[in-house]
Amino acid sequence: MSGKYCRTPCVWGIHDIAEQRRDIVGTPSIRRGVIQMAKVSPFHSKLSGTEVYHDNNACAEGNNIESGNRVSGTGGLKKCSTCKDL
Fold first, then answer.
1. Which residues contact 61 (CB under 8 A, 6 or more apart)?
2. Which of 23, 50, 57, 63 meets the CB 3.0–4.6 Å disulfide criterion with 45?
3. 3-state DSSP call for residue 78?
4. DSSP line for 4-72
5. 42-63 burial string, b = 16+ CB within 10 Å, else e?
6. Chain segment 8-50, per-residue pLDDT in tens
7. Reported pTM
């Protein structure tokens, strides 16, 4: 399949996925054939023992925080190592 957003042939179907994600995050971001997940506003858990904040919607730990326990901002905490790597 010829690249819809790039000039070189890409992995089959990658641009179809990008089109589907356009509704969710706006313009798709494609790098080396992988769709990059969106950064989001920093948030953390209000539960005791919380040591990190999150800012990427691809972070499994951040996604496991229930909405009732989610607080906007960094809370003065360090950034999650998974979010750093994404």
1. 52, 54, 80, 82
2. 50
3. strand
4. SSSSS---TTHHHHHHHHHHHHSS--EETTEEPPPEEEEEEE-STT--EEEEETT-HHHHTS-GGGEEE
5. bbbbeeeeeebbbbbebbeebe
6. 454 444 444 444 444 444 444 455 555 556 789 999 999 999 9
7. 0.58
